[in-house]
Amino acid sequence: MIDHSSSPGEALFSAPKLKIDPAPVDHWLQASDRTRPQRLRESLAKALGVEPGEHVNTVTAVAGGPDVLVIGPGRWLLRYPPGQTLDGQELLRSVTDISDSMLGFRVSGDSARELLGTGCPLELGEWDDTQPGCAQSLFHHIPLLIHRLQDSSLDLLVPRSYLAEFQHALLHSARALAALQSNAENG
Amino acid sequence: MSQKFRNLTGGNISRESPLDFRFNGTLYQGYQGDTLASALLANGVRLVGRSFKYHRPRGVFSAGPEEPSALVQLGSGPLAEPNTRATQVELSANLEAFSQNCWPGVNLDLLSINNVFSAVLPAGFYYKTFMAPRRLWPWYEKMIRKAAGMGTAPDQADPDHYLCSYAHCDVLVVGAGPSGLMSALAAARTGASVMLVDENPAAGGWLQRERLSMDGMPGANWAESIWQELTDLPNVTVRARATAFGYYDHNMVAILERVPGGNDKDLPSQRLWRVRAKRVVLATGAIERPLIFANNDRPGVMLAGAARAYANQYAVRAGSRAVVATNNNSGYLTAVDLADSGIAVAAVMDSRSSVDHTLLGMMEERGIPVDIGHTVHDTRGGKTLGAVRSGATDVIGGSQWMDCDLLAVSGGWSPAVHLHAQTGARPVYSTEIEAFIPGPSKQAEQTIGAARGNYDLEGCLNEGLRAGRQAARLAGFDTPDEDSLSLPETNGETLPYGQEAFWQAPRPGKRSKQFVDIQDDVTTLDIELAHREGYVSVEHLKRYTTLGMGTDQGKTSNINGMALLARLRQEPIPHVGTTTFRPPYTPITLGALAGGETGASVKPRRYTPMHAQHQALDAVFAPLGLWMRPQGYPRRGETMHQCVQREARAVRSAVGLTDVSTLGKISLRGPDAGEFLNRIYVNQFSSLPTGRARYGLMLREDGMILDDGTVTRLSEDAYFMTCTSGNASGVLQHLEYHLEVAWPELEVDLCEVTEQWAAVALAGPLSRGVLQRLCPEGTVDAVRLPAMGAVDTTVAGIPARIIRISFSGELAFEIYVPSSRGGELWDALLVTRDNTEVTPYGMDALEVLRIEKGFIGMGTEADGRTTAEDLGLGRMLSKKKWFVGQLALQRPGLNHANRLKLVGLTPVSPGDELPEGAQVLAQAVATGPGCSIGHVSSAAHSVVLGTAIALALVKGGSLRSGDTVYLADPARGANETIAARVTYPCFYDPEGARQHD
Amino acid sequence: MQLFNCPWCGPRAHIEFTYIRDHQSVSTRGNGDDPDVQQELDRIYLRSNHLGPHQEIWQHSAGCRGWLRITRNNLTHEVEDCLPCQHGDAP
């Protein structure tokens, strides 16, 4: 389990019900085995000491280790704090370092989901707020990875090349939502 | 500024908030809660605009979205909104509105001359008139377009901004009238998530317009209290001013919400909701139909329900002396409410043969005469109504004229089945109410209340309660046993409907205009004409006459039109049917659909890890698909052409640096990776030694080239593939498809790493020297790193992979580092310690270099219609193994001698340019269409030859070597052809000596 | 906006998916055995374009990147089922 409580840098946006900070830059590995996912799962369980989840969109936290996100059939993402990585040579065939591929933002507050809904068609109402989770989807046309943390805040990560456009779109929505809220309150 | 027609008391307006507004420049006053229409009527303004074709005077006809006549332009300049229905415009401070389609003004409109020529302007006139002389067609078209029409679109960028939102709920209720409110409340009590929307600023629907009492208070107040109760529930979202305009696949409903203005620059003016609901309840109400008689379009003629809405909701008298004409009982409500609001009601014309004695009693109480079996035949009065002519329903012309300035007509009520019908469901005709009601549902929805033909208040409330509970149950939420939700007390019964169909009054004269579609100026004569000419299908009737094609989409005209067509065809109305219902229900702004995706954000742009470095060097950027890539780095005083020549020359003579991070990159691993690559590429890869790279070609299954790229073998089981920037996701999909669907037994895993690696190409005779100083000793020497070799090492201390491939034809190195360090790599390579100048070069220079070498480009030479053989790469096709596309390559059409094949071109006159995309001809002058023998696929100005060069695809290819051909470029205005010589498609170092050593 | 019930992710908007091809055109050929050019061309170019349910190969490209065989009515857009398409799925 990695410590998500501190986020570096200053907030990108701050309003009563919504805060956007840069997401921490962590160490990401993708592990996949198309033909024998069960074999990979067992190897990861041995290396991590915890069995990675089987159902897509679930997250398993490893104490003193990574968060393990199931993002597809036979496909996991391991999220390590910087400086940590996976031990286990025999797994290297299936494991690719993709740390530099993604960047993004951490969104928290009551309006976090509403913000996501301004560009992402995902149904969030069914998500269990007491459990961390993950999903891949789109924000407008930008590929998006959502990692919902234990405290309900959302890490929204996009491929590095899309970061500038993503930031622009996210802020446009955040400002509009904040304006709508204060407009409604002032009647 | 007095509001002469406003009553001192009554209505749901806020008299403590007066508002100033301007119409056609004149200042008026209204109140908060008014619409523009009610405020205009309060001020006695009856003439609002001019009609589409005949420029006849038009006024306020309805009190809702069905308005066909009172179309105004709101605001001016970039914020102007044409064709806005005054009946739906909420009055706000300093609102400005203007009449449309009239010149110089609505009172004196010179184009009303059209009315005089109406005999030659019937439906479909442009198929018959204005035919000769033919050379005048462009002028006719210009004049016709100017003479008829709606408002003027603004020609500046929209300064407003818009927000989109996706939402999900268990139950979506459309319409907050009595049925909708009960439905939402019942569903909310079960704990289901509920969304309730209504197009009006306040809840209540028709309760706002009638004088009904519920639970001891006015119906409008009861509705407000339920709305407030719903607003306070945590599982309910309520939205006013929100029109559900479209019903889409799998229970998605699109809703446009108007946000009342504020001063915050971040406040969006509209919000587009895309709501996916488990169950939808449609409580959209019913729309009144007018009666059809001569000159029924005059300002002062209005729907009966609207006349009483103005009296009850807005405390506005829509006239001083009124006549009511009806074919059902609701007309009597209007007579009562108008009389009670202070208007003199001269008479009620009832087309039916008998009338309920209770209603007759109500009229007698107020001294209003009732003429049974009578209707209105004609009106007169210039720009506004002055008098009506009434008479028996079967007598042509009627008998007596009556003075009046308001004629309230009711031809019956049609349920608003639009959203239901948009799902593909077919409405069914009910002879009971002579209207279409919803048919069997095609999606998870249910229609209730007046929208289903139920015009009884208690019935509506009951239906709402049951429907709300049922919708929640179907969504998985049961009503708790202790739910005490009960229906409100209603005072008295609502009148039964009592409609008797009466579709058309007799026509007084041969040319009398009895309007059916008031917005598009379609009369009964037009419908008869269409039928006479054979347009007997309702869909043809619509297109030929334009009935129902205006901004109101025929809300007050379609049913009447269908009934008339049925009479002409002598068939029952259900046999005629309806036209297709399409979204949007009312017009929506394109800006709302676009949301924030406008201007530069239409598609998200992608930037390389070295973008900041390129900006610092004043690069000029150009898009390549979604990517922004440097086109070149022009220095002060340089033209782009000079810049490109300088950069290309620097690569050929010294050393240049370019950003190739946009290349698609895929990592492949597994014991079957080699076999997989063998099947995908036309050439061999399983035999590629570790540490070596090879250029490969992959085909589509139909034999055409899909992509080219480079594969490097990293170890026994691991390969690293690069592919064209624009095709990265296409290639990945191609590979994944074959692994998942075609050959799932192969043990190979793919991982896309396009974003993981930044990449540059360092190219030129001095490139090795530059790199040697930044790498561990000996790593990039010719022996350790031969041509097409690869090595993992460090560059300026950054972990890097170096592959010796060249796209420029010079000695070159492609260097890959983790993308977070791309900028660092770029800076390190540009700054050398021994004053070697490393020239950054962009896409354009790269094009010059690769064209000089005759290297094919994806999209130019490999355009999806060319094979490897066509491009001179036939030798790459392995004869020892099967590959995707191999079988299809054998078909005769791909081996035909006359196919377009790759050649080079140089100009016969050294100073000529060779335009890219020009057609190639065998003779100097085009002999007519179809004489092209090919086209120029890539062109550049060569730094090596000093002239233009080109690659072209030409019939016969190398058989024409040495021949002169002619390039024609008429699309770009070239009047003469350019002579060019056919050469070998490589202009520089054909043996490739410079990139090898 | 259509909704597809991805077997791994649950119901998702169709914009997350990419249509690949009709199932009729799938081939599992991995080698040059029994080459029949005409049969290959027929497979590539000819298929029934009937009104009604089609078997379609889609990828959940913006989601889990799983591969699906969706039985979908091309007139009413009704989705009969949404099954994984992995481990070989020739017609």
Strand content of chain C: 35-45%
Structural category of chain C: mainly beta
- CATH architecture label of the largest domain in chain B: 3-Layer(bba) Sandwich
The Rg value of chain C, from CA coordinates, equals 14 Å
Q: CATH class of the largest domain in chain B, anyone?
A: Alpha Beta
Could you state the CATH homologous superfamily of the largest domain in chain B? FAD/NAD(P)-binding domain
CATH homologous superfamily designation of chain C: Folate-binding superfamily
**Percent helix of chain B:** 10-25%
Q: Which regions of chain B contain 5 or more consecutive residues with pLDDT less than 50?
A: none
Q: What does the radius of gyration of chain B come to?
A: 38 Å
Structure annotation, total helices of chain B? 22
Mind telling me which CATH architecture of chain C this is?
A: 2-Layer Sandwich
User: How much strand content do the residues of chain B show?
Assistant: 25-35%
Number of strands of chain C: 6
- Low-confidence parts of chain C: none
Morphology call of chain C? globular
What secondary-structure arrangement, pairings included, does this model have?
The complex is a heterotrimer of chains A (187), B (997) and C (91).
Chain A: E1 13-15, E2 18-22, E3 27-32, H1 37-48, E4 59-61, E5 67-72, E6 75-80, E7 95-97, E8 102-108, H2 112-116, E9 133-139, E10 142-148, E11 154-159, H3 163-185
Antiparallel strand pairs in A: 1-2, 2-8, 3-6, 3-7, 4-5, 5-6, 8-11, 9-10, 10-11
Chain B: E1 14-23, E2 26-32, H1 36-42, E3 49-50, E4 57-58, E5 71-74, E6 81-85, E7 95-99, H2 113-116, H3 137-147, E8 162-174, H4 178-189, E9 194-197, E10 213-214, E11 217-218, H5 219-232, E12 236-239, E13 242-248, E14 252-258, E15 270-282, E16 286-288, E17 301-303, H6 304-314, E18 321-326, H7 330-340, E19 344-350, H8 357-365, E20 370-372, E21 374-380, E22 387-392, E23 400-403, E24 406-410, E25 413-415, H9 418-422, E26 428-430, E27 435-437, E28 445-447, H10 457-474, E29 515-517, E30 522-523, H11 524-532, H12 538-545, H13 558-569, H14 573-576, H15 590-594, E31 606-607, H16 611-616, E32 620-624, E33 627-632, H17 640-653, E34 656-659, E35 664-669, H18 673-680, E36 693-699, E37 705-713, E38 718-723, H19 728-742, E39 749-752, E40 757-763, H20 767-772, E41 790-795, E42 798-803, E43 812-818, H21 822-830, E44 839-840, H22 843-853, E45 900-907, E46 919-921, E47 934-941, E48 948-955, E49 964-968, E50 978-983
Helix pairs in contact in B: 4-5, 4-10, 6-7, 11-12, 11-13, 17-22
Chain C: E1 3-6, E2 10-13, E3 18-22, H1 37-45, E4 53-59, E5 67-73, E6 79-84
Antiparallel strand pairs in C: 1-2, 3-4, 4-5, 5-6
